[in-house]
C-alpha cells in the first residue's frame, strides 16, 4: 500500500451507473428494454414558460366571481354531430389490454362526471368504457384490433391514429403474458403470443389515400361523427398540414412526453420532439391554411396541471388530452403500494413494466386477482376531482390574464424562462421582446 | 329491383339509401350503374341484400360489409372489402392493393388477379383469388383462409399468424416465419368447400394446391431470431 494519496473514484459522465447497468442488462438478456410510460429525460417543457398576469396594461377578472368559460366544440368542420365538452381536458386513447376493464370503466366514469370525453385504444371498444362514457372517441388504429362498423357507429367521434408521441413511426408490442382469453378474442389472436401493433395502416399509404380513407369512414357513419387525426410530434408543421388537407375535423398532436403501454425504451427516449416544440409548428400550419379554430387542435404529452392546460391553450391549442396523469389520478404508482412495487424490483413513482401485467394497483393488468383490487367507482371519483382541479387552476390563470374564456389565452400572455423554451415555443425570453429565431425560419 | 345511377344521384345518396335498409327490408335487389371508379361505394352495409355494381370501382368498395352480397361487374380499386365482417363480395375483374385487408369474416372472391398485400392483416375472412396475387400478400395475417389459383409474389405470408394460405401456382418467395405445411384430409375438405363458395370448383382441384402457414418461430421474441426481423 502506497502512502501517496489516490485519485478518488470518479464516474464517467457518459458511462454513468445507469448506463452501465443497462449495458449489463442487455448483455445478459439479449433484448432491448421494453417499458410503459413516456420519456424520463429532462426536456424543455411547460414549466419553462410563465404567465404574465394583468396589472395596468391589462385588466384582470375577479377570481371565482367573473365568468371564465371552459367549454369547447370539437369537429365543427364537417361533422353533423360535433362534440361539445364542458372542459378542454380530454382522456387520451389507452387500450383495453394495456389497461384492465375496471380501469377503463373508471376513466369513463370520471370523464363523464367532469363533462369530457374518453378514448378507446389499440384493442377495441369495451362495454365498460362505452357504458360509462357519455362521450367516447373510437380510435381507428393501424392494428385494427377489434375494429368493426358497429363500434364505429356507437362512437361519438373517430380518431384515425397515424402516430403517437412516445413512438412516432413505431408500432406496439403487447407481450404474450398479458394476453387473457378476452384480449385474445378481441384481437383475433391466440393466447400467449406477442401481439404486434403495426406501425402503419395496412390499407393506405400516404396523405392522398388518407383523404379517401377519411371519406370512407364518413360514408360508413353517414357524416355524423367528427374525424380526428392523431399524429406523433415529429414533423408537426407538415403532418398537421397534411391532416388538414386530408379532411380532418380535429388534429391530435402528441409530444414525446406522451406515454405508451409498452415499447422500446430507446424509442421513448430518442424519437420525437417535446410537445413545447410541436405546438407552435402545428398552430402555424393551421394559421397558414386559414384553419385555426376551424380545425381544432388537441395536444398531449406530459400535461399535468391547470397551468399546463392554460399554457397549451395560450400557445394555440383548443384542448388537451391526458394519459399518464389520468392513470396516476386513478391510483397508479401510489406510494401506499410501495411494498408491492419493491417486490417487483421497482418503487412507487417509477414502476413502468406495465407490459408484464403485474401492476399491484390493478390498473395496467389483465390479471383478475389484481384488477379486482381496483374500485372503478372510487377511481372515477378521483379522476373527476383531478379534472375539476385542473380546470379550476386553468380558469384562475386565465382570469388573472383578463380572459373570460380559456380560448382567449394567447401567446402574449406568456414569457419564457430559458433560451431553449423561448426558441421552441416562440415566446419572448422573460424581460425581453426577443426569442431565438425571431424574424426568420419556420 | 332498385336501380341507382351513381353519376346522376351521387355517392352520399347511394350509401344513405343502403344504410336505411339496415334490419328488415323487402328491397333486397339493387343495381348501381355508372360507378366510374368512384370511391367508397356501398360501404358500411348491414342488411341481407344483393347489390350489383355495373362497372369498375375506386377505393374501399364494400368496406366493412355486413350481411350483403355485393358483385362488381368490373375491376376494383385499393382496399376492396376492407375489414369486411360477413356477407360476400365477388369481383369479376381484378383487384388493386390490399384487397380484403383486416377482414374479419365473410367471403371475398376475385375472379381476376389481386395486387400486392392481398389479405394483409386478415382476421377471419376467406379470400378466393382465381388469378395471381402480388407481393407481401397475407402480411401479418391472423386468421381466415386465402386461396390462390394462380401464382403468389414475393414474401408471401410474412410474419404470418394463424391464417391458412393455399396456393396452386408458384410462390416467388416466402416471407419471414412462413413455411409450406402438410396438406391433410381436413385441409382438402376445407379447400373443396372454399373453391365451391368461390365459384372456382370447375377451375381447380384441392389436390393441386400447396398449403402455407406460420412456423410459429417468431411468436415470442427471441434475440437468436433477430436476423428474421
Structural notes for this entry:
The longest helix of chain A is centred in the last third of the chain and has 25 residues, at 376-400. The relative contact order of chain A is 0.17. By secondary structure, chain A is of the alpha/beta class. In chain A, the strands form five sheets. An eight-stranded parallel β-sheet of chain A has the order 5-15-14-12-11-8-7-6. Chain A is globular, with a radius of gyration of 22 Å. Chain A contains 15 helices and 16 strands. Chain B is α/β, with parallel strands linked by helices and 229 residues long. Chain B has a single domain (2-218), classed as Glutamate synthase, alpha subunit, C-terminal domain (Pectate Lyase C-like). In chain B, 11% of the residues lie in helices and 23% in strands. Chain B is built from three helices and eleven strands. An eleven-stranded mixed β-sheet of chain B has the order 1-2-3-4-5-6-7-8-9-11-10. Chain B is elongated, with a radius of gyration of 18 Å. The termini of chain B are far apart. Chains A and B meet through helix 4 and helix 6 of A and helix 2 of B.
Which keywords apply here?
heterodimer; A: 442 residues; alpha/beta; TIM Barrel; 8-stranded parallel beta sheet; two-stranded antiparallel ribbon; B: 229 residues; Pectate Lyase C-like; 11-stranded mixed beta sheet; 23% strand; GltB (chain A)
In short:
Chain A contains 15 helices and 16 strands. Chain A is α/β, with parallel strands linked by helices and about 450 residues long.
Amino acid at each position: 500500500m502506497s502512502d501517496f494519496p489516490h485519485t478518488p473514484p470518479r464516474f464517467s459522465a457518459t458511462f454513468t451507473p445507469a448506463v452501465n447497468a443497462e449495458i449489463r442488462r442487455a448483455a445478459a438478456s439479449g433484448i432491448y428494454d421494453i417499458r410503459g410510460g413516456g420519456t424520463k429525460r429532462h426536456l424543455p417543457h411547460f414549466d419553462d414558460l410563465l404567465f404574465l398576469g394583468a396589472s395596468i396594461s391589462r385588466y384582470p377578472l375577479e377570481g371565482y366571481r367573473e365568468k371564465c368559460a371552459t367549454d369547447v366544440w370539437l369537429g365543427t368542420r364537417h361533422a353533423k354531430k360535433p362534440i361539445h365538452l364542458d372542459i378542454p381536458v380530454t382522456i387520451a386513447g389507452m387500450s383495453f389490454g394495456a389497461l384492465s376493464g375496471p380501469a377503463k370503466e373508471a376513466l369513463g366514469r370520471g370523464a363523464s362526471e367532469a363533462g369530457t370525453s374518453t378514448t378507446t385504444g389499440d384493442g377495441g371498444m369495451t362495454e365498460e368504457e362505452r357504458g360509462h362514457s357519455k362521450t367516447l372517441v373510437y380510435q381507428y388504429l393501424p392494428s385494427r384490433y377489434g375494429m368493426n362498423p358497429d363500434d364505429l357507429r356507437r362512437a361519438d367521434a373517430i380518431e384515425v391514429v397515424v402516430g403517437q408521441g412516445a413512438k412516432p413511426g413505431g408500432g406496439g408490442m403487447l407481450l404474450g403474458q398479458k394476453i387473457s382469453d378476452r384480449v385474445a378474442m378481441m384481437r383475433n389472436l391466440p393466447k400467449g403470443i406477442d401481439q404486434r401493433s403495426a406501425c402503419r395502416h395496412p390499407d393506405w399509404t400516404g396523405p392522398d389515400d388518407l383523404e379517401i380513407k377519411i371519406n370512407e369512414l364518413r360514408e360508413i357513419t353517414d357524416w355524423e361523427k367528427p374525424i380526428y387525426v392523431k399524429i406523433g410530434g415529429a414533423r408537426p408543421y407538415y403532418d398537421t398540414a397534411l391532416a388538414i388537407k386530408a379532411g380532418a375535423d380535429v388534429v391530435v398532436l402528441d409530444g414525446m412526453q406522451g406515454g405508451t403501454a409498452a415499447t422500446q425504451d430507446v424509442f421513448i427516449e430518442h424519437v420525437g420532439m417535446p410537445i413545447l416544440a410541436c405546438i407552435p409548428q402545428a398552430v402555424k400550419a393551421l394559421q397558414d391554411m386559414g384553419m385555426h379554430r376551424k380545425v381544432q387542435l388537441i395536444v398531449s404529452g406530459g400535461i399535468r396541471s391547470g397551468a399546463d392546460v392554460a399554457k397549451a391553450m395560450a400557445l394555440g391549442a383548443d384542448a388537451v388530452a391526458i394519459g399518464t396523469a389520468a392513470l396516476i389520478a386513478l391510483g397508479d404508482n401510489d406510494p401506499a403500494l410501495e411494498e408491492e412495487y419493491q417486490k417487483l424490483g421497482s418503487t412507487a413513482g417509477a414502476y413502468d413494466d406495465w407490459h408484464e401485467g403485474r401492476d399491484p394497483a390493478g390498473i395496467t393488468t389483465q390479471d383478475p386477482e389484481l384488477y379486482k383490487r381496483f374500485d372503478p367507482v372510487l377511481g372515477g371519483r378521483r379522476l373527476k376531482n383531478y379534472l375539476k382541479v385542473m380546470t379550476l387552476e386553468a380558469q384562475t390563470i386565465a382570469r388573472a390574464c383578463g380572459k373570460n374564456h380559456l380560448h382567449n389565452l394567447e401567446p402574449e400572455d406568456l414569457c419564457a424562462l430559458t433560451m431553449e423554451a423561448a426558441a421552441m415555443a416562440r415566446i419572448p425570453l422573460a424581460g425581453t421582446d426577443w426569442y431565438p429565431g425571431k424574424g426568420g425560419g419556420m | 329491383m332498385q336501380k341507382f345511377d351513381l353519376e346522376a344521384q351521387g355517392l352520399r345518396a347511394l350509401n344513405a339509401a343502403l344504410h336505411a335498409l339496415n334490419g328488415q327490408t323487402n328491397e333486397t335487389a339493387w343495381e348501381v350503374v355508372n360507378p366510374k371508379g368512384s370511391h367508397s361505394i356501398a360501404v358500411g352495409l348491414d342488411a341481407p341484400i344483393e347489390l350489383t355494381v355495373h362497372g369498375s370501382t375506386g377505393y374501399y368498395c364494400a368496406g366493412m360489409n355486413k350481411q350483403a352480397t355485393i358483385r362488381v361487374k368490373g375491376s376494383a380499386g385499393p382496399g376492396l372489402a376492407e375489414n369486411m365482417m360477413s356477407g360476400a363480395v365477388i369481383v369479376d375483374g381484378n383487384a388493386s392493393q390490399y384487397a380484403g385487408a383486416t377482414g374479419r369474416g365473410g367471403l371475398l372472391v376475385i375472379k381476376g388477379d389481386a395486387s400486392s398485400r392481398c389479405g394483409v392483416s386478415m382476421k377471419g375472412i376467406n379470400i378466393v383469388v382465381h388469378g395471381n396475387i402480388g407481393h407481401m400478400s397475407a402480411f401479418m395475417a391472423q386468421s381466415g383462409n386465402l386461396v390462390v389459383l394462380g401464382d403468389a409474389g414475393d414474401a408471401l405470408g410474412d410474419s404470418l399468424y394463424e391464417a391458412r394460405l393455399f396456393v396452386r401456382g408458384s410462390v416467388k418467395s416466402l416471407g419471414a416465419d412462413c413455411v409450406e405445411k402438410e396438406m391433410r384430409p381436413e385441409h382438402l375438405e376445407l379447400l373443396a368447400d372454399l373453391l365451391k363458395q368461390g365459384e372456382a370448383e370447375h377451375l381447380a382441384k384441392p389436390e393441386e394446391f400447396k398449403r402455407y402457414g406460420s412456423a410459429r418461430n417468431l411468436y415470442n421474441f427471441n434475440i437468436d431470431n433477430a436476423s428474421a426481423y
